[in-house]
Amino acid sequence: MRILYLISLLLLLLCNQIGTAQSKTNSIGKTKWFDPNKSASTYCNPINIGYNYTTENHNGIPDSRRSSADPLIIAYKGDYYLFATNQAGFFWSKDLSDWKFVYGSFQRNPSDDDQCAPAAWVVNDTLFYVGSTWKKDHPVWKTADTKSGRWVRHVDTAMLPTWDPAIFQDDDKKVYMYYGSSGKLPLCGVEVDYKTWLPKGNQADYEKLYTATEVEDIQRPYGEIKAVVGLDPAKHGWERFGPNNDMEPAPWGNFIEGAWMTKHNGKYYMQYGAPATEFKGYANGVHVGNSPLGPFTYQKHNPMSYKPGGFVIGAGHGNTFADNYGNYWNTGTCKISVKDRFERRIDMFPAGFDKDDVMYSITSYGDYPTLLPNNKRDQTKGAFSGWMLLSYKKIATVSSSEECMDVQTHRVDTGGKKVFEKICYNPQNLTDEDIQSYWSAKTDKPGEWLQIDLGRKMRINALQINYADHKATQHNKAMDIYYQYQIFMSDDNQNWTLVVDKSKSDKDAPHDYLELTKPIEARYVKMVNIHNASGLFAVSDFRVFGNGLSEKPKSVTGFKVDRSVADSRNAMINWDAQPDAVGYNIYYGIAPDKLYNSIMVYEGSSYDFRGLDKGTGYYFAIEAFNENGIGPKTNLTVSN
Question: For the Fibronectin type-III domain, which residue ranges apply (predicted)?
């Protein structure tokens, strides 16, 4: 009996300890202003996932850096699943904000791609998955237990060239595949037998495809394969290659890639990315047809998702999906492109179809806090939270700074030539709204810090910490990658309040977005490093959002659009600089009620715009913004 009593007592003590530990775990990091266990109502681009580090010597570049691109998000059984290039797995979320990683790699050799530009899709309530290849050795995978990371082979060998694939099942249950990535050839599409993954039709008609070895021959249409969408950069300015659509002729061609199909009101919206992932004008376009394989007609409103300015730059090669409330979203690829031209991140914007069935995506203030969905809503005006950027060009002080150094960069602005640039890691990089620059401390040790002076007391609603990969040593995925830090705020730079406590965090959050549970007013914001994932403690931009509690800018004056007579794809846009403005948003569209596209410009009073279509008239307007809010839009300017 005594032994039984002692065992019962030990079990009771153990249960109490577990309960106490769980209670502590649930409250770890909670402050008066921030609760890590509370669901957010907003998110902020780039999407905050644990971007994988590239494999060693990826693309012949030895530097360690994170990257991913070519995303797709699908809703499946009430959750959201995010698949993207070379992540050694995928991510899932209940709310499009808090993403959890599931390991599921298909890498065969240490230097190989894992799954490049993968496709995932639901057919008859089963989730299927395939990566990109020009070869005939790629299996198609499926799973009934998604969150386990375990997949089984649906077919051993996909005979079709699944490069940048997209899969679509129509209402009649027929399955179609679209694919292609080329500077010369169009995207292709074909109906497939999803049980065998062979194209429909006489297999003898595909003999040339099955035996072809050159990429251009593999991507040509054979049998019942159709050429569905191609580029026409001579007419469509945004489809031109170059940093500002300005490299004609294109050295490698104007690239079309990233197919995706969406059906709406009986119409088929064939989407694609162009003209190249490393440029600010990387965008998603759309053609519309009455059947899954066309013919398709270029939508007058194009590109349908476009973000050439701001902190996050680029919106091409993604997908369109409906959330659990029926709202549409468009994902895309944004660029950093310094350590590697394929150094990239992922973004997501509100999208939809208007009353005229015109497909659109709203990217205005698309790298500021954006409202997550909680009901069905009209997204033609976007989903901006109204929280303004408070930290732009504000004074930053730091614990230490790395010395300037000559670095071999891999930009393509010089036609693809590798060049050495002198790069400095100064504190002002923390607030310059340039994702390509960053500050770095001299070490990764606990106690390294950065501090922002907002200039006066302001109301703070959210923060975003964009870590940089400086002297990182990690390659590929590891499960012990995480960040820990604390954020303090002050009115006088003397008395500090702990606002965010992530000293016990175990999450890999390279673009950590922190929505406060309630706003706080402060002038000084200080971040203290505790643990860095890999390399030195380095941050691209430390962004503070809320309201400056002062006057909004006035309406912009002197706004005019001078469209080139010699080349109507181009226009020079000018306005009078506003003394109370931080930046400007230029809106344009094909009708007064369709100003869906926008261009964010910080400071300045002009913009060289080269993204118009010949033969299309446009309407333009501009608004100024600052840390206190957004000024009124100007009257419409017409450009025919």
Answer: 552-640
Task: Provide the token pair at 132.
Answer: 């990109």
More confident residue, 95 or 58: 95
DSSP designation for 247? -
Q: Determine the Cα–Cα distance for residues 625 and 365; give it in Å rounded to an integer.
A: 10
Enter the tokens of residue 461: 């609603």
- Which helix (H) or strand (E) covers residue 515, if one does? strand 511-531
Alpha carbon distance 524, 519 (integer Å) = 14
**Percent of the chain residues past pLDDT 90, beyond the cut:** 82
Cα separations in angstroms, 367 against 13, 34, 41, 312, 567: 50, 21, 15, 6, 32
* Three-state SS at 517: strand
Q: Distance between CA 302 and CA 315 in Å, rounded? A: 13
What's the pLDDT at 4? 40
Position 58: which residue type? H
Task: Report CA torsion sign: 6, 12, 18, 23.
Answer: negative
What is the reported pTM?
0.94
Rounded Cα gap, residues 440 and 343, in angstroms: 18
Backbone angles phi, psi at 93, to 5 degrees: -150, 155
Residue 19 in tokens:
């309960």
Query: Are 314 and 277 spatial neighbours (Cβ–Cβ below 8 Å)?
Result: yes
pLDDT at 133: 83
Q: Which tokens hold the place of 34?
A: 């921030």
C-alpha 527/C-alpha 449 separation (Å) is 6
Both tokens of 487, joined, read 């954020």
The answer on pLDDT for 558 being more than 90 is yes
DSSP labels, 293-309: T--EEE-SS--SB---S
Q: Which of 158, 52, 159 is nearest to 113 (CA)?
A: 52
* d(C-alpha 78, C-alpha 75), whole Å: 6
Structure tokens at 172: 């009649």
Please give the span between the terminal C-alpha atoms of the chain, in angstroms, as a whole number. 95
Radius of gyration of the chain (CA): 25
Q: Which residue has the tokens 């030539």?
A: 417
∠ CA 587-541-82 to the nearest 5 degrees? Answer: 75
Q: What does the alpha-carbon distance between residue 456 and residue 465 come to, in Å, rounded to a whole number?
A: 21
Give the residue carrying structure tokens 């039984």. 4
Only one residue has tokens 């995932």, namely 120
- Spatial distance between the Cα atoms of 360 and 439, rounded to a whole number of angstroms: 36
- Sequence-ordered list of residues with C-beta below 8 angstroms from that of 441, at least 6 positions apart, any chain: 398, 399, 400, 401, 402, 448, 529, 536, 537, 538
Q: Residue 219 pLDDT more than 50?
A: yes
Q: Could you tell me which residue, 10 or 578, shows the higher pLDDT?
A: 578
The number of residues in the chain equals: 640
* Cβ partners under 8 Å of residue 594, min gap 6: 301, 354, 358, 360
Which two three-digit tokens encode residue 407? 């670095």
